[in-house]
Design brief:
- By secondary structure, the protein is of the alpha/beta class.
- The chain has helices spanning 3-14, 28-43, 67-86, 102-111, 127-136, 177-181, 189-201, 224-232, 252-259, 277-282, 289-302, 321-334, 361-384, and strands spanning 19-24, 47-48, 57-62, 91-96, 117-120, 159-163, 165-166, 185-186, 206-210, 239-243, 267-269, 307-314, 338-343, 390-399, 402-407, 412-416, 426-434, 439-443.
- A five-stranded parallel β-sheet has the order 2-1-3-4-5, sandwiched between helices.
- Helix 1 packs parallel to helix 5, helix 8 (224-232) packs parallel to helix 9 (252-259) and helix 9 runs parallel beside helix 11.
- The longest helix is centred in the C-terminal third of the chain and has 24 residues, at 361-384.
- It is globular.
- The N and C termini lie far apart (55 Å).
- Bound molecules: S-adenosyl-L-homocysteine and iron/sulfur cluster (SF4).
- Iron/sulfur cluster (SF4) is lined by residues 168, 170-172, 175, 177-178, 212-213, 246.
């Protein structure tokens, strides 16, 4: 008997209609983990509901990348106490990167006693066993694992994440990910290609290869550019994208493979973090501003329809005004379509934790705003140039009188009208006007 069958048998003795609730915080990696967990929970006899109060099983998939994210999650966890008081039979599981940190587990053990089970992201394989033991109160040893052997319950029937590599070996000095997600581990290319083939046959239109650092993919036989070349051979009509890639591992082979791909959607999310070589060195990023610009220039030359987005951190320990000016200069030269900017957050156990950080928080906020303002005007200019152009778009959601669509490069296009019958299909559109973060268009 499998873990899911054991849970199923047990839970049906308690309720005819077992219900589960899942809340996901953080990155796409967490979304992908959640889809695997949902697959297992469904197989165990639960159905998912939108409301925590109604459910017999509550699962939080947590993020630890920044302090603010973590605090927000603790706020949500605190609110579960009331739910447990009203319904003491509910099982509450805290899963994810937060649960990989010793001091967080200790805090939960001491102050959040209503939590039943804490599972770190590295232990996703053990999720079925741990959940089964918690729910049934008995110990079993069955060989049933997530992720490879578990059915994934995908949220969408036309967009899919495909994990190709987990963990991270980079140890950027500010980042907690290598500690909470562990060492890089690539999935075998044949498994990945099988999964993509299967998705395309089922009609999926948007496939995103996922990993903390997809371009260091290496399965012992092939590397990331080879993997792209293999995916290029798959027949079918779909957008292929990937995230996240590291500038130090981005090379001409990968760009050439993408340039000849019939599927590449055209999005490069290439986090630069800073434009100052001094700060990049302190961050342990292993590239310079010049190298970064060189690689994106080559990419734009080879793939003219490219949309480049990035992540930036302001207020890294020791960041001087002149370092910040280098970042401003970089974003003017790089011409990103959009950026995600974060104020540096000190994380326990990282190298940067010990670096002196004398810049006042107010100064960091003012740099953050300055960066955002300059980027806004760059984005506006880039988007305005799209007016009159034609794009292939995927219709991703339909509201009363408007369809929300995306180009292969990930840019949102809003189309006025009722198009629900076209949901999840490709269409051609012409851009009619531009806002700072999205475009308006008409279907052709
Ligand atoms: N693996 C990806 C993403 C990692 S986390 C990459 O290497 O790019 C996503 C983003 O969060 C990072 O790109 C970085 O900009 C930001 N980030 C990570 N740690 C941070 C910290 N301690 N403080 C502020 N931002 C951080
Ligand atoms: Fe964190 Fe750097 Fe790894 Fe990205 S590459 S997850 S920023 S350590």
């Amino acid at each position: 008997m499998t873990y899911s069958e054991k849970i199923n048998l047990f839970i049906k003795t308690k309720t005819d209609d077992p219900k589960a609730f899942i809340r996901v915080f953080g990155c796409q990696q967490n979304e992908a983990d959640a889809e695997k967990i949902c697959g297992f929970v469904l197989k165990s006899g639960f159905r998912f509901v939108e409301c925590e109060q109604e459910s017999d099983l509550i699962i939080f998939v947590t993020c630890a990348v920044r302090h603010t994210a973590q605090n927000k999650i603790f706020g949500h966890i605190g609110r579960l106490k009331k739910i447990k008081e009203i319904n003491p039979n509910v099982f509450i599981v805290i899963f994810g990167c937060m649960a990989e940190q010793k001091e967080i587990c200790e805090k939960i053990r001491l102050h959040y006693k209503f939590i039943d089970l804490v599972i770190g992201s590295k232990s996703i394989d053990a999720f079925p066993k741990l959940l089964c033991e918690e729910i049934t109160g008995e110990n079993y040893n069955i060989c049933e694992k997530i992720p490879e052997e578990m059915p994934v319950k995908r949220k969408s029937n036309f967009k899919a994440w495909v994990s190709i590599i987990s963990g991270c070996n980079n140890f950027c000095s500010y980042c907690v990910v290598p500690f909470v997600r562990g060492q890089e581990k690539s999935r075998s290319a044949s498994e990945i290609l099988n999964e993509i083939n299967h998705l395309v046959k089922k009609g999926y239109k948007d496939i995103t290869l996922l990993g903390q650092n997809v371009n260091s993919y290496e399965d012992g036989k092939i590397c990331f550019s080879d993997l792209i070349l293999e995916i290029n051979k798959i027949k079918g009509d779909f957008f292929l994208n990937f995230m996240t890639s590291h500038p130090k591992n981005m090379n001409k082979e990968i760009i050439d493979a993408l340039a000849e791909s019939p599927h590449f959607g055209g999005r490069f999310h290439l986090p630069v973090q800073s434009g100052s070589n001094r700060i990049l060195k302190l961050m342990n990023r292993n590239y310079t501003k010049q190298k970064y610009l060189e690689i994106i220039n080559y990419a734009r030359l080879k793939i003219p329809y490219l949309t480049i987005t990035s992540d930036l951190i302001v207020g890294f320990p020791g960041e001087l005004r002149e370092d910040f000016e280098e970042t401003l200069d970089l974003i003017k030269l790089a011409k990103f379509s959009s950026i995600f900017t974060f104020i540096y957050s000190k994380r326990k156990g990282t190298v940067a934790e010990k670096m002196p950080d004398l810049t006042p928080h107010s100064e960091k906020i003012s740099r953050f705003n300055e960066l955002a303002n300059i980027q806004n005007s760059i984005s506006e200019k880039i988007f305005t140039k799209e007016i009159g152009k034609k794009h292939k778009i995927l219709i991703e959601s339909c509201q009363d009188n408007m369809a929300l669509c995306r180009t292969g490069g990930g840019v949102i296009v809003k189309i006025k009208g009722k198009y629900s019958e076209l949901l999840g299909t490709f269409a051609e559109c012409k851009i009619t006007s531009a806002q700072r973060s999205f475009l308006w268009g008409n279907l052709i």
